[in-house]
């Protein structure tokens, strides 16, 4: 009769991303040599009881051939960004009759996936040709701050109070470039990211909302340190660390000659408000090559979905 397998212990999770992680545990040399498969029990964290699984939207058990540890677990079809999970493991030996000799389940450990950050190099602003003609002819080439509308969360401190120039930075996953379409106009102003996001800029979180859709919007404010916009936001909004936050990051060059690294979250749509005038001379205007979508698809004065359980704190509580 085969000797029993030892229960896996000292479970460790590392290299966690939005849709992958690596897992390892203490295993004896004898069990490592015998094991043919690993069983991984993975579930969203639904209960405060660390020994109870409520499998929902994920497989109850992942079966993998035994490999050297740490083992990579990848799968966007069962791992979601910024989500808490519980995991336990078994080691197993496949028998000649097809059955398995298995260890006891390990203790349950918890971890949280990250959000996928994509590199980008420019902020951009989509508008109609008439807007850019007006900026050149009447404003000396300066895009001047405008009052934030009342879209998004009803209680956001910036709605109807903060002035800014609105930008986007989202990119297409496969190209790393801004989207080819626009709901705001057929022309696009592009400005190098470093002009708006650098160590002399304060970054603030302003809103998180959706409009009866599966995806969510995040509103961020960029304000030059010491500016009027910075003063307004400092007492009203949470400040984010430029180098470490889930939405928009700036990483300083590590060596001489290197460029800064700019990243944005890919699982939300970012709306960025820059609180100072921006000169057209700092970038360039180009024609958008894709389709100009209907203005009804914009977020102008759009109302937040009050029933969403993700972006409304009180719903379902």
TrEMBL record:
Superkingdom per UniProt: Eukaryota
Domain Phytanoyl-CoA hydroxylase-interacting protein-like C-terminal: 113-317
GO CC, one annotated term: cytoplasm
Protein name per UniProt: Phytanoyl-CoA hydroxylase-interacting protein-like C-terminal domain-containing protein
InterPro entries in the cross-refs: FN3_sf, Ig-like_fold, PHYHIP/PHYHIPL, PHYIP/PHIPL_C
Alphabetized UniProt keyword annotations: Glycoprotein
Pfam families, alphabetized: PHYHIP_C
